[in-house]
Amino acid sequence: MIQQSDLPDTIAIFPLSGALLLPRSRLPLHIFEPRYLQMIEDCLKTPGRLIGMVQPNVVPGREGPGLQTIGCAGRITQFSETEDGRYMITLAGMSRFRVVKEVDGFAPYRRCDVSWDGFERDLGKDEQDCTFDRDTFLNKLSRYFDARNLSADWDTLQEADDELLINSLSMMLDLDSEDKQALLEAPSLSTRRETLLTLIEYTLRGGQEGEMMN
């Protein structure tokens, strides 16, 4: 098992709005911009093959997008190249991190010094949510899917482990970047589930305070 001391102090950063990676989850990515093609090639040469996924953040007075302070590093576990030179990769979520500072250099992509402190649990075993009322949650989720005209494999959702269910939905649902960031920063699985349920209920209310839609 990877220890926190094995993680590097500096990693490549991929700022992608709306894309959420969580520990012990997997995120497929389609890479086509030249600077990020170079990033993948460079990362594949490193022992950890780690890329930091971070939400962009608008900073007043800054030219270009800033970065949220917390992201999640993923290890490249699958890689393929298309005939026209694009890369298809899969990142396996390893651990969240806190951005310390950006690093100047000659790379065409962004790199940051990061701290892994406070995220020791991310490298451990799957989390359990002992207070999870699955029936109530799935009922709300069904109403959310109906409101968005979405379909789902409900047998698979019902059988999924707590962490797989909550993290997969957090990553897949069409939520604002700020909401994705809140889900990323949740200190525990139960907090993430409560945050996700609040966002689902907010959508069912039509984004307004008041009684939930029937």
From TrEMBL:
<dbReference type="GO" id="GO:0008233">
    <property type="term" value="F:peptidase activity"/>
</dbReference>
<dbReference type="InterPro" id="IPR046336">
    <property type="entry name" value="Lon_prtase_N_sf"/>
</dbReference>
<keyword id="KW-0378">Hydrolase</keyword>
<feature type="domain" description="Lon N-terminal">
    <location>
        <begin position="11"/>
        <end position="204"/>
    </location>
</feature>
<dbReference type="Pfam" id="PF02190">
    <property type="entry name" value="LON_substr_bdg"/>
</dbReference>
<dbReference type="GO" id="GO:0006508">
    <property type="term" value="P:proteolysis"/>
</dbReference>
<dbReference type="InterPro" id="IPR003111">
    <property type="entry name" value="Lon_prtase_N"/>
</dbReference>
<protein>
    <submittedName>
        <fullName>ATP-dependent protease</fullName>
    </submittedName>
</protein>
<dbReference type="InterPro" id="IPR015947">
    <property type="entry name" value="PUA-like_sf"/>
</dbReference>
<keyword id="KW-0645">Protease</keyword>
